[in-house]
């Protein structure tokens, strides 16, 4: 009995199924869906259907390959639509996944920004409080003026005491 170790990768198994890269297939489906949503595709399809119908109406009977009611054309357009719909859905799913990831990143960035704003707000409030406690220029002038008066008072008293 062999036990699989979880700390080591599994060995690749050979299978008869073809291997495909889901990411590459997803990119291809997005490219196809992007092309199907363009005006160029509409013009190409219009030209294609117009040429098809014109050929099968105006060509000699021996060269007509899909006479009216154009069953083969209808089959081809149905086949194209049956492939286009799942490819478009796959592309939309991938876009939805990208949008979800982008939303998460935006939310995280908004949370970080909010935290920074709150931090800066607290810092500004702290600075305002600290500035209120710091001696202002007017306060210092008033205090120095008061001290000067106190220093000058003893001189004035002594002059008054001394006879002239």
Automatic annotation (TrEMBL):
UniProtKB keywords: Membrane, Transmembrane, Transmembrane helix
Recorded superkingdom: Bacteria
Transmembrane segments: 41-58, 70-91
Pfam families: DUF1003
UniProt key word Cell membrane: no
Name this polypeptide is given: DUF1003 domain-containing protein
Organism: Nonomuraea coxensis DSM 45129
Classification lineage: Bacteria, Bacillati, Actinomycetota, Actinomycetes, Streptosporangiales
